[in-house]
UniProtKB/TrEMBL annotation:
PANTHER family the record matches: SLR0848 PROTEIN
Protein name: Cell division septum initiation protein DivIVA
Native source species: Tamaricihabitans halophyticus
Gene Ontology BP annotations: cell division
Region listing for Disordered, in residue ranges: 67-91
Record keywords, A-Z: Cell cycle, Cell division
Biased composition (Basic and acidic residues): 79-91
């Protein structure tokens, strides 16, 4: 390897001492000496340099093959990515469709349940109001009959007492008392009737409040289920609340 550097130094010396051509940057060198030095350099180069040259010669081929394989891998990866995206999009559309169908079914079920609760509440309300009216009419009729009987008894008693001259004043007072008592009794029976009707209507008001609370809970649960998209949620209606 030392001979290589020595020959290169001699080439540099020959070139520097060569006679130059007028009006140019060229020079005249002894061809034989230069060729001899170049042969010495070629002979002195180690075999590894030749092997390195072979590697350099094959570099482009290796790089071309690597580039081709990279392009194929990239194309294959892009195709697989597109296929994965398409599959994911199809699956997402299917899930959204199923969720939408489930939500529509839940809304339909909730609407049917609400309609059923309203119908049942209306029927119970009508029945209770009917019973309350019947009871009120019965108690009113009974009070009216009692009032009529009391008034009639008072009038008969008044007429009897009036027919007796010695007790006319006492009879008038008693008749007035009886009539007043009849009025008081009739008023008391009316108050009892009104209280009974008010109690029944209060009971029905509590029933309607419970029914509306149940429907409100169902609607709240429905809104929460549709936003979250659960897989198999049902409406936990609490009819005892």
């Amino acid at each position: 390897m030392y001979r290589v550097f020595e020959a290169l130094d001699e080439l540099v010396t020959i070139t520097e001492e060569a006679r130059g051509l007028p009006m140019t940057a060229s020079c005249v060198v002894p061809r034989g000496d230069v060729l001899e030095l170049l042969d010495d350099i070629r002979d002195a180069l180690p075999n590894e340099v030749d092997d390195a040259q072979d590697v350099l010669d094959k570099r482009d081929e290796i790089l071309g093959n690597a580039r081709h394989e990279a392009e194929q891998s990239t194309s294959k990866a892009n195709a697989e990515a597109e296929r994965a995206v398409q599959d994911a999009s199809t699956e997402a559309e299917r899930l959204v469709s199923e969720a939408r169908a489930r939500a529509e079914q839940l809304v339909s079920d909730a609407q049917a349940e609400a309609d059923q609760l309203r119908a049942r509440g209306r029927a119970e309300y009508d029945e209770m109001v009917g019973r309350a009216h019947s009871e009120a009419e019965r108690m009113t009729a009974a009070g009216q009959d009692s009032y009529t009987r009391s008034v009639e008894d008072g009038r008969m008693e008044q007429a009897r007492l009036v027919s007796q001259t010695e007790v006319v004043h006492a009879a008038n007072a008693e008749a007035t008392r009886i009539v007043d008592a009849a009025h008081v009794e009739a008023s008391r029976q009316r108050d009892e009737c009104d209280s009974y009707v008010d109690d029944k209507l209060a009971e029905f008001e509590d029933l309607l409040t419970q029914t509306l609370r149940t429907v409100g809970n169902g609607r709240t649960n429905l809104r929460g289920t549709v936003n979250g998209l659960p897989s198999s949620s049902m409406f936990p209606y609490d009819y005892q609340s």
